[in-house]
Amino acid sequence: MNSRQQAILQYVNDIRRVSVADLARNTGVSEVTIRQDLNLLEKRNYLKRIHGYAVALESDDVDARMMINFTLKQKLAAYAASLVNDGETIFIENGSTNALLARYLAERKRVTLVTVSTYIAHLLKETDCDVILMGGLYQKRSETMVGPLTRQCIQQVYFNKAFLGIDGFHPETGFTGRDMMRADIANTVLAKGVENIVLTDSSKFGQINPNPLQPTHAINRVITDYRLSDEYRNHLKMMNIQLDIVYEEQGTL
Fold first, then answer.
1. Taking the complete model, does pTM exceed 0.90, yes or no?
2. What is the architecture of the domain spanning 66-246?
3. What are the residue ranges of CATH 1.10.10.10 in the chain?
4. Which residues make up the CATH 3.40.50.10470 domain(s) of the chain?
5. Helix-strand-coil percent breakdown of the chain, rounded to 5?
6. 174/172 Cα distance (integer angstroms)
7. Check whether domain 3-57 has CATH 1.10.10.10, yes or no
8. Model confidence pLDDT, tens digit, residues 53-101
9. C-alpha to C-alpha distance for 163 and 91, rounded to whole angstroms
10. What's the chain's Rg over C-alpha atoms?
11. Which residue from 241, 146, 140 is spatially nearest to 185, judged by alpha carbons?
């Protein structure tokens, strides 16, 4: 994927539905070139095309999700890594920002990583970091382990902190996930009573998904970016959740 195609994917995921003509104007290339780019991106399941438009695709593919807000996710991951101390055992759930966090920790800290993500385990195969991969039912698309065996494994393993992803947050529903089985695994982690940290970009706020992540009071901290609205900032503070805002220049509030 070249830089223009990355820019197209970013724009489509930000706007959700964009015409070929608008993409041509924004990138400064012909509509023919845009259509060729969209054909490639659709073939790789990064987006879909409908009657002259490119439409964002909700995908469980970690590589596809990694391309959305990639630079910002790197900054979120770097800040999250600063909260981890050498010698700790850290649980990291699946997801693109969590994958970047895992790589950052493996390359810079002396830690043991516990994960349900085969994607993360594979990402760290060339590092010196010890990785404990939970067993269970393999979800091929998301490259993660789920089910009763995974839940049992998590219950038997100790870790100091847990970093979790979300698919949505709304004041009426709290934190939610798209997939029932992955939400069940996140809830198993929340039930252990360790320090639970949600790591996500702000695009997830305002979205509602069918599977609640509970108990909400078990979530101690949220790390997200500067685009989070004041409404959601205030609501998280009312829930007594520590909020860390990461800015483009890597500072936090």
1. no
2. 3-Layer(aba) Sandwich (3.40)
3. 3-57
4. 66-246
5. 40, 25, 35
6. 6
7. yes
8. 888 766 666 766 666 677 889 999 999 999 999 999 999 999 889 999 9
9. 6
10. 19
11. 146
